[in-house]
Amino acid sequence: MTEDTRLDPPSLEIEGARATIRLHRSRHRNRVEPGDIIRLMEHFDTVDANPLLRVLVIAASGPAFSAGFHLGGFAEDRAAAARAPGFDAMVDRFEAIRVPTICRLQGGVYGGSTDFALTADFRVGVTGMEMFMPAARLGVHYYPGGLRRYVSRLGLNTAKRLFLTAEKLGAEELLRIGYLTHLVAPEALDAAVDGLAATLAAMAPMAVQGMKQALNEIGHGRLDVAACEARAKACKESADIQEGLAAFREKRAPVFRGA
Asked: CDD domains per the record (predicted)?
C-alpha cells in the first residue's frame, strides 16, 4: 500500500513578530506535493495579511531541506493537482512576500527547492550540506522565472554552471558563489537563524519592506521608480523615522511601530 504523503502538509507558526513555515515530509526529503503548493500559498497570504509580522522563516524537518517538486504528485493526487498553481507561481509568490524571509537550510537542497530557497532574502546553511540542480540530467527545461532568478542573484556564468552541468556543490562553494548568505556549524544553525530573525524584526518595517520590494525589482531589471519614491516619501513622513533619529541621539534601541 502506498503511503499517503498528503497527511504531512506544511505548517505555519506565529510567535510575536516572527512567522515560521515548516516542511514536514522528512521521509521523502520534504518533497513538495501539489497540495503543499495550495497550503503554502495560503500561508503566504496569512503572513502578508498580518501587519504585526516582521520576518518569515522557512524551515524543514529531517536531514534534507527539500528535494523540490514531486512530479509524480500529479498522478497521485489528481484533485489537488487540478487546483494547485504551478510550482513557479508559488516561488514567485514567496519572493513577493512583504516581510524579509530567511531559509533555514539544515541539509541538502535539490531540484526546484534550489530556486525556492534562492528566492528567500537570506539563506543560512550548514557545513556539510550540498545543492544540486539536476534539470539537464533529467531532460527538464527549467521555467523562465527560475532561470531569471539564478542569473540575477548568482550571475550568468554561475547560472550556466549550475543548470548546464548539473554539478553538485558543497557548502563552502555555495557561500563563495553567493547562494548562501551565511554558513555556520550545524549546532549553531538555530542561534544564527534566531539572531538574524531578531535583527530583521527590530528594523523599521516600512523602510525594510519598501527597500526589499525595490531591490527585488532592481534585481529583475524592472524597478518602479515612482512607487519606490512614494514609499521613500512615506518613510520620511512617518513616526518611525522620528523614533529612529531619537533613538540614535539617545543611544538606545528604537521601537518601531510601522507607521
From this structure: crotonase-like
Q: How far apart are CA 198 and CA 6, in angstroms?
A: 33
What H or E segment, with its residue span, contains residue 207? helix 205-219
Q: Tens of pLDDT along 129-180?
A: 999 999 999 999 999 999 999 999 999 999 999 999 999 999 999 999 999 9
CATH among 3.90.226.10, 1.20.1290.10, 3.90.550.10, 3.40.50.150 for 5-200: 3.90.226.10
Closest CA to 125 of 64, 168, 183, 60: 183
Answer positive or negative: Cα dihedral of 133, 11, 24, 1.
Answer: negative
Q: Contact, 120 vs 102, CB < 8 A? A: yes
Long-range contacts of 209-212 (CB under 8 A, 24+ apart): 209/98, 209/99, 209/100, 210/234, 210/235, 212/99, 212/100, 212/121
Per-residue pLDDT tens digits for 14-26: 999 999 999 998 8
